[in-house]
Design goal:
CATH topology of one domain: hypothetical protein PF0899 fold
Shape: globular
Strand content: 25-35%
CATH architecture of one domain: 2-Layer Sandwich
Largest sheet: 6 strands, mixed
Structural class: alpha+beta
Strand order of the largest sheet: 7-16-13-8-12-11
Number of strands: 16
Distance between the termini: 41 Å
Number of helices: 6
């Protein structure tokens, strides 16, 4: 059983059990491509490199054969699960329904695990090749914007967007996202280009919260990592550049445990993996945090 349930037992005046403050599930899965798989690995995408058409300079000449380069990007499953017990005797004493709260709590935890897989895949080595046996490192030379001992600035966002556009990301059909922590959100609120209507034709704040700017949609998460210099690694990406594979989406099972005096076990699991599909569709923006 959860040993923290004694806390709830002595609070008889409460008629509702609050979920502890936490990120409620996955924030990022809606900003990446998603597919389902079976087996020990999944071929997330079969990529073909661009080819160049040949100009016709003579009549009745031989048909040119221009080989199309092929490449594959792979995603591998990782298992996560969680469980806790709702003791029958505790349930009676607490006077509130614990099962639903525990279920939601477990689902939130698995949603955060999904985000952790996506965040790792932003800048980690991607499995490439016919059998996924080649590690393709993130392109820090062409797809990384240095911190410059500064936080997240409008100039950095412009550089990130320019990089994606130069890589021919089709902004008409491919939405652009940026994951930020509270520190980067605060950085942008201190930028006059963001908050002043002198620089934009419509407000970009919703109830004091920045949701989009420069055509980039912001997603708030406190789970982004830092590099060896303690600079925050902020990803800016096209949706087509990142992928989530689901072997089994979040599943919750609630059943009595006969070996635990019929306590109700709340069990949840997910099997998922994430991959960067294209280095040119992801930009790393390094941000100093004070």
């Amino acid at each position: 059983m959860s040993f923290d349930v004694e806390t709830a037992r002595i609070q008889e005046y409460r008629n509702n059990l609050d979920i502890a403050l936490q990120q409620r599930g996955s924030k990022l899965r809606g900003a990446v491509t998603v597919a389902t798989y079976r087996g020990k690995a999944g071929k997330a995408v079969e990529r073909v490199a661009p080819v160049t058409a040949q100009r016709v300079t003579a009549r009745h000449a031989d048909t040119p054969l221009i080989s199309t380069p092929h490449d594959a990007r792979w995603v591998y499953p990782v298992d996560y699960d969680w469980a806790d017990l709702v003791d029958t005797f505790d349930q009676l004493r607490v006077g509130v329904e614990l099962t639903g709260a525990y279920t939601m709590n477990g689902a939130y935890a698995l949603g955060r695990a999904i985000d952790d897989e996506i965040i790792t895949a932003f800048f980690g080595a991607a499995k490439t090749g016919e059998n996924g046996s080649t590690d393709t490192a993130f392109d820090t030379s062409g797809q990384q914007i240095a911190s410059g001992s500064a936080g997240l600035t409008v100039a950095k966002l412009k550089d990130a967007k320019r990089t994606l556009m130069a890589n021919e990301v089709d902004l008409d059909f491919d939405p652009i996202y940026c994951a930020i922590t509270a520190a980067q959100h605060d950085d942008l609120l201190n930028q006059i280009e963001v908050t002043s209507l002198d620089f934009t034709n419509r407000p970009v704040l919703t109830d004091g919260r920045l949701t989009s700017f420069l055509g980039i949609q912001f997603i708030h998460t406190e789970r982004l990592g830092v590099d060896g210099s303690s600079d925050r690694r902020v990803p800016v990406w096209a949706k087509s550049g990142m992928h989530l594979g689901l072997w089994d989406d979040i599943v919750v099972d609630i059943a009595p445990r006969r070996d635990k005096r019929n306590a109700i076990q709340v069990y949840a699991r997910v099997t998922c993996g994430a991959a960067r599909l294209d280095e040119k569709r992801v930009v790393e923006v390094l941000c100093t945090e004070s």
